[in-house]
Structure of Nicotinate phosphoribosyltransferase:
Amino acid sequence: MRNDNTVTSASTALLTDQYELTMISAALRDKTAERQCCFEVFARRLPEGRRYGVVAGTQRAIDAIADFRFGPAELDVVSGILDPDTLAWLADYRFTGSIDGYREGELYFPGSPILTVRGTFAEAVVLETLILSVLNHDSAIAGAAARMVSAAGGRPIIEMGSRRTHEFAAVAASRAAYLAGLSSTSNLEAAREYGIPTAGTSAHAFTLLHTTADGPDEKAAFAAQIDALGVSTTLLVDTYDITQGVRNAIEVAGPGLGGVRIDSGELGVLARQVRHQLDDLGAHGTKIVVSGDLDEYAIAALRAEPVDTYGVGTSLVTGSGAPTSGMVYKLVEVDGIPVTKRAAHKETPGGAKAAVRTRRSTGTIVEEIIYPADSAAPDTNGLSATPLQIPLMRDGEPVADIPSLADAREHLAQALVSLPWEGLGLSHGEPAIPTRYVMSQGNTR
């Protein structure tokens, strides 16, 4: 049970698994805790049906690492499972190593070294769960959101999924969705914390509220909303009969009404009918917003319809069928010695790695090449090559010029344009570009 007098709410140290700490205890005992190690974050494969992944959550992970501290409250929680030496080590814990990685908003593919964490075994291994929980969640949401943005073909999308996920996951989902190109969010905490534009007007409950002994009074609800928010607001017209709802909306607001929203039914058919009705009523500039369990496939199906804005919720905040990115955090080097896991279907190439992405003169990307971090970049057969990792932390401190959320949003928009055209398709298929390992001179796979 939470006790607000003893829990340090700002600390992220307990957002981890117990085995991270018991490994440290054992390593301290056998004197291996201080061996210099390199861990990498990567995904062995993309989620089912995806052609690319989107890196998101990097800044949140860096911020969380900075707050990874064991104060008295945190030590009290683990005191019953750890020995005094380990507790003393945790009390002094500060990450002092370095982190490089793909910038937020970058595309990734199977094997991409998304994050490289260097430090002692103890100080780096303890960050595994925290890093993975942030990156796996945010990248899954951003990947789903990017597909929705592509399907929308330039039409704005509002994120409105807060009620369909954990209250704090909702804030992270809003951030990841905005990074991927959504235009706004309904979540006010996301607005406060990340400066994301907000949107929202009214729910069916407000229309139903205006019911008297004489029956429903939709016009009264519309009039009250317009009085409070102005004629540029969007009225929800499907509480009762949509045709009558549109008629009532324009009668109350006039032809200058900002928009109408449809939240149920056959959205494509209804959008066409509503557009004709609005035009007949002289409301040519009134926009149509549709919502109601939309995913990227539903958005794509509505692309030919007279829809101006989409609202997405459940599918977005659950990753549209892929709620995690499947990223792992693996030890790849100990004191400069490459190490590798050999379990079936989970092989990990040993050694710290770097990566470049090649592209044609047109800007279209061709392949990703992964090679030893201490080697020169391999020959790219005349194609231009872009290094993919950037510095994120040095000596335990975030670097000064980590790209901002706005930078990440712009970077992803440009990165999606660089994909081969088939890579933007929603159909199942191979990753949009291949990943090639060049682990030693003349050795590729």
